[in-house]
## 1
Amino acid sequence: MGQNAKASERLNAGGAVAPHPLSSVDAAAFRNALSRLAAAVNVITTDGPAGQCGVTASAVCSVSDTPPTVLVCLNRAHRMNGFVKANGTFCINMLAADQQDIAEMFAGFGRVGMAERFIRCGAISDMDRAPIVANAIAAIDCDITGIREVGTHSVIFGTARAIKIGKDQRKAPLVYHQRHYHTVQILKSNGESA
Ligand SMILES: Cc1cc2nc3c(=O)[nH]c(=O)nc-3n(C[C@H](O)[C@H](O)[C@H](O)COP(=O)(O)O)c2cc1C
C-alpha cells in the first residue's frame, strides 16, 4: 500500500487518530515551534450533571459559521476533559489583556480550588449552562456536536447556542506567545497606505 493510501486509511479510521509512524519530530522541538504561534487565551467552562469545571486553553478555533461551530482541544489527562464530555456543553470565554490573573488561576497556578476560581473571576451562572467569566471580551456557549481523540488531547467540536459580547468593544485580548502573555496593537488601519 502506498503512503497516501496509508494516510487516507488513518484519516478515515474514525474515532482516535493513529500516531504517524513516520514522524521523527522531537516532542520538545515540536512544542518549541508551536510556542511561536501566537494564540488568544480563553477560559473554557462547563456545568451540568457532572458539575462545574474550568481550564485555561489557547487551542480554540472557529470551524464553520453555518452551523456556527468551534473546536477546543482539551488534554485527556486533565479533569476538565471528563467534565465537558459528561456535561455535553462548554463555554469559550475570551479573556481581555487585563485578565492574566484569571488565565493563570485556571491554568493551575496558585492551586486555587475550582469553586473558588469561579468566585474570584466573578462567574455568572445561567441556570445549568456553563458559567460566564465576568468582563470576558466575548463568550460562546456551545453544545458538543463531535469529539475526535488525537494523541494526548480530545478535539471537541461545539455548536454555538448563545453568545455574549463584552460591553467595551475596544478591550484588547490576552495573547500567549513564546511562553509569555502579550496583547495586540494595530499596526496600520485596513486600507491605509504605507
Ligand atoms: C496560556 C495557556 C494555554 C493553555 N492551553 C491549553 C489548551 O488549549 N488545552 C489544554 O488542555 N490545556 C491547556 N493549557 C493547560 C491547562 O490550562 C493546565 O494544564 C490545567 O489548567 C492544569 O491546571 P488544574 O489541574 O489546576 O486545573 C494551557 C495553559 C496555559 C497557561
## 2
Amino acid sequence: MLGFDCLGGSCEDTCCRDWTLEVDRDGMERIRGRLGPDEAAALRVLEAEQARDLGKDDIYGYIDRRADGTCPFLDRDRLCSLVIRFGPKVLSRACAVFPRAFASFPDRVEIHGSLACPEVARRCLLDPAALDLVPAPGAPSAPAHAGRRFESGGAWAHYLFDVRRSIVDLLRRRDFPLAARLALAAELAAQIEPVYHRDTTAFDGAGRQAAEKQLAAALATSGDAAYLAPLCADFCALQVPGEQTIAVVANVLIARRQLPHTAAYARLLADVFASYQEEALGRPASSADSVPAAALWAVYRGRRGRLQDRFGDAPERIFANYGAHFFMRWPYLDSPTVMHHLCKLGIRLAVIRFLFAGHPATLAALEEPHPGPAMALLEGAAVAVVQTFAKAVQHHPNFERILDGSLDQEGGASFGRAVCLAKLC
Ligand code: SF4
C-alpha cells in the first residue's frame, strides 16, 4: 500500500458508489458542522438502529445514497466535494481509511488493501511484489477503532506469523499447479491441527516442547520440494467429480443475488451464466433454460484447459496472489482451525475462478490473436471479477454468511472438502 495512489475521477468503479457509506458519530458531527443549514438538513442518514440490522454496531449510521447509488457528495467530476471544499480531515473514519485496512497485533500494525478498490485489486493481482510485507517507517498508525485488533491469544496467536508465512509461501510457489498448492496447504493444515488450533492447550506446561517440535517439523517440510512433489503427483492423479462443487458455487452466487446488490454484480452474473448456458446448450439461452451441474462442470473444465493452453500459468499466478492476499488480509485467528480458514479461501477462489472463466473479457482474450492485447483482456477480466466479488462481499455482511454457510453442507471444513474445492481452483 506504500505506493498506492487513488485514481480519483478516472477510477472505473469509484468507492463512492454502490457502497454502504458508513459514518461514525464524530465524522457526522464534523460534516454537519461544515455544511450550510440547508445542506445539513438535506443530508439523509440511515441511523444506528437500521445500521445495526446490517451487522455493525460501532457506527453512527449510513449516508443515504442518490437513486443512482452514488454518494450525495460525489461531484460531476467523480471527486469528493467534501474533500474539495473542506480538506480530507473532514471525512468520516471509513472514507478516510478506505481502501487501507489495518490489522493491529500486540507487536505490530499491518496495513493491507481492500480488493473492493480496482486499483488495489490490480496491484495485488498483477504486481508480483505487491504482496511482500515490508516495514513502513513513518506510515500512518491505525486510527482508533479502525480495522481489526488481535490481542495476544496464547499459542494460536503466537505462531500466527510463522504458520501464515508457510501457507503464503506454499500458495505462491510456481513449481506446482495452483490447485495442488491449495491441497498441499490443506495437507499442512491437517498435519498441524492435532496440536495447533484455536482452543489448543498442547503448548501449555510440559507438552510445550513436543508441540513446538511437531509444529516446526510440519512447517519445515511444507517448504521441501522433495517432500511435496509426490503429494502433488497424488493430488493431480486424483479424480474428483466437480459437479457437486460447481453446484455449490452457482447456488452461492444466485443466493447473493437475492440480497440487495449492485448493477455491476447483476451484470457480471447475467453475462457469466449466459456464457456457460450458451456453450452447454449450443444455442442462445433463455431465462427458462436451466443447465445441469454436470454440463456446467464440463464447460468450466473445457475453458480451464483452453486458458492453460493459451496463457500457460498466467491465470494461476494472478489467483495465487488472491489466495496469498486472503491469508495476509484476513489472519485466520477468528477461524477454529487453519483448515477451516483454508476452506473459506477455497470457496472464494472457486467462485472467482468460475466467474473468471465465464467473463466476456476472458472469452474475448481466448479469441484475440495478438498476445499483448489478449493478456490485457485476461488481466482486466481477473481484476473486474475480483473487485466486483470483493465489493459484493463487503457490501452485505450476509454474503459472508452464505459463503461460509456453504462449507457446513456436506461435512464442513475438512481435508476432503479442501481437496474438492482445490480441484475447482
Ligand atoms: S475505488 Fe480506489 S481508486 Fe477508485 S476512487 Fe475509491 S480509493 Fe480511489
